[in-house]
From TrEMBL:
Keywords: Cytoplasm, Methyltransferase, S-adenosyl-L-methionine, Transferase. InterPro entries: Efm4/METTL10 (IPR026635), Methyltranfer_dom (IPR025714), SAM-dependent_MTases_sf (IPR029063). The lineage of its organism: Eukaryota, Metazoa, Ecdysozoa, Arthropoda, Hexapoda. The keyword Methyltransferase applies. The keyword NAD does not apply. This is Protein-lysine N-methyltransferase R5R35_012146.
Length: 226
């Protein structure tokens, strides 16, 4: 596949059940059961702080408008989009390949009386129709793709190509990862995207080295490539 050679120096992650659709289908079945019984929504993989950092950046960035067309790729239960809706963003869409996730996200949005469009769509699908967005969000989806146990590098390239394809000219891609560092993400995405901004995240020190629990990076769609 095109550009796979550019990622050959990147060591792959150890495959995990978190890279399987079966895991996420089961997770959102349990999430729906919990929501119906208690009305409480699980915070998900990253917790609320990661979402709030992204929302804060979108709210404060002068280039970002409240009516910008925004998509959350691998939206899960839709909480990130709900936060944006409550901040006044009006054109919000969530994609997820799990029907169970989309059903849960719709149920939560209905409970909160928020208008968000949720669709069952797989970003790895070669036939993904280009519906152009101003901003694409990812909180853990690229991580899940990276944890797949079959043709992982090719799937990562397909992911990057398809995200590029659904963004408008100079569109922004906001990715939050707990598996890849800022340097690694830049290496992965630089054949389609340029680095625009890095959202500060909590750091820790261990053995004399400093690291981050999560990484949040904003890329801009490159126009100098096809």
């Amino acid at each position: 596949m095109e550009h796979v050679k550019e990622l050959n120096d990147c060591e792959e992650l150890v495959p995990s059940e978190l890279g399987t659709k079966e895991y996420w289908d089961k997770t959102y079945v349990n999430g729906m059961k919990h929501f119906k019984e208690s009305g409480v929504v699980d915070e998900g993989w990253f917790g609320e702080d990661s979402s709030l950092r992204v929302v804060k950046w979108l709210r404060s960035e002068q280039e970002v408008k409240k009516n910008d067309k925004i998509v959350d790729i691998g939206c899960g239960n839709g909480l990130l989009l709900l936060e944006l809706a409550h901040e006044g963003f009006t054109d919000l869409t969530g994609f997820d390949y799990s029907t169970n996730a989309v059903e849960l996200a719709k149920a939560i949005a209905t409970q909160q009386e928020v208008a968000i469009k949720f669709e069952v769509r797989d970003v790895l699908n070669d036939d993904l129709e280009p519906e152009l967005f101003d901003i694409a969000l990812d909180k853990g989806t690229y991580d899940a793709v990276s944890l797949h146990n079959d043709n992982t590098r090719e799937k990562r390239v397909q992911y990057i190509n398809n995200v590029w394809k659904i963004l408008k000219s100079k569109g922004k891609f906001v990715i939050t990862s707990c598996n890849w560092t800022e340097k690694e993400l830049v290496t992965h995405f630089n054949f389609k995207f340029s680095l625009h901004h890095v959202i500060p995240t909590p750091s820790f020190k261990f053995g004399g080295k400093t690291g981050n629990v999560v990484t949040s990076v904003i890329f801009e769609k490159r126009e100098d490539i096809l």
